[in-house]
Amino acid sequence: MNVMPFLLFAFVASITPGPTNILVLTNSQHYGVKATLPPLISGCVAASAIVLVSGAGAGELLRQYPLIRQIMSWAGVLWLSWMSLQLFSAPAANLTNGTQHRFTVRAAALLQVINPKTWMMALAVVSLFAPKGEHALREIALMALWFLLISVACLTCWAWLGSAVNRVFRTTVAMVRFQRVMALCLFASAWAGMLA
After folding, report:
1. How far apart are alpha carbons 131 and 126 in whole angstroms?
2. Percent of the chain whose predicted confidence (pLDDT) is above 90
């Protein structure tokens, strides 16, 4: 396997805005980088596990049964739409006292399972980069490990960006506006994944 094209693909898939990136950013904005690391790592481990499972055969199952993929996609879009509504409608008081919903370890992992972007990325990895032959599963496990390391680094950048937001948007009104823009981005990324 030629590693460099895969590493570039993993970087682009991890660093580009998507539901997980936006939720990591907003969680870090409110609770800090340290508190965001557990869900960040949970989401990355789950996404890497999906790469491994797809390479071991589940990806082929999703190709053979598009109804299952459609159900997962709709569940993901509806859940992300609900989360974006929660972010959009959070009152100003919640933005400063930390009472809004946190992005939890469990939610981060579940998001990957129902996120169409994660499954499409995993299917692309398997289709484009998975080796065939005697040691294919070992190579796919190595790809999943590389993906884990790259995605943790990329999402950590998003977490740092979230903590920097507080230094840029200093008033409650500015924070509410930023929160609403992020909510709209989350909504758009969910539906863009569905319509792609």
Report:
1. 8
2. 21
